[in-house]
Amino acid sequence: MDSNVRHERLRGVLIAGASRGIGRALVDSLLQRDDFDCLFAVARSWDDRTLSADPRVQLIESDLTADSARDSLAQTVSERCDQLDLVINTVGFLHEPGGQQPEKSLRQLNMAALQHSFAVNAGVPILLAQALLPLLRGHRHCVFASLSARVGSIGDNHLGGWYAYRASKAAQNMLMRTFAIEWRRLNRESICVLLHPGTTDTGLSAPFQTNVPEGKLFTARFVADRLLAVIDERSPADSGNFYAWDGQAIPW
Ligand SMILES: NC(=O)c1ccc[n+]([C@@H]2O[C@H](COP(=O)([O-])OP(=O)(O)OC[C@H]3O[C@@H](n4cnc5c(N)ncnc54)[C@H](OP(=O)(O)O)[C@@H]3O)[C@@H](O)[C@H]2O)c1
150 alpha carbon to ligand 1 midpoint, in Å? Predict the structure, then answer.
């Protein structure tokens, strides 16, 4: 077994964007494990509350784009758990039915789309880290992972298009890399990573799956299991980097 693989028990785990897509699959995957005490599952709304039948799970409704919501999230978590050992942000935006769509050409770009994409894809993860920082302190193994996307890699951009999504994910990468440096000064065991899940069969990718090669469209559950394995294999020396679902490093 890899010497970096973590063995100690997790006290608190938080998944943001937990009600659907990859976030929900991460919760389902974690619930198969017995190595944590509390799981905070955060979503804008919880219509289906069946997950709360598991005493380890606390469902929290929070719109993480709002400053007051992030502050009260941190307060709610701290009332049950004094430290988080694993935080995974999956909140992300590409398109909405009948509304904003990824741009095929520069003509389609506008300020409102840029602002919305940057708020959700770049603002939420870094300001979530800010709100939760008091729960991430101490000299101990602690992971903050946030879902990015390979299309946010500047070096890997050979196709163009999707201006707002690409740029907002690139901005997230820079913000989280910067956080990784500051956090390391507070906790030398901290690990902050960006993760690319691969093309995953969720609402986010649904309109864009036509040209995905055979075998390259993953189920959310497969991806969740892979991302948790990639996280478990990371050590503090990996903090501030960007990894794909298969553990390969992705260029900025
Ligand atoms: N699926 C893919 O192929 C793929 C590929 C590369 C990267 N990713 C990234 O992986 C992450 C998860 O994607 P997914 O495929 O699971 O997508 P999804 O099923 O569309 O889930 C997106 C999540 O983001 C939340 N969200 C979206 N807009 C929001 C807003 N304005 N405020 C607060 N929360 C908001 C959603 O919450 P609500 O339920 O409240 O709307 C949902 O939990 C995203 O960051 C995405 O960019 C996905």
Answer: 15
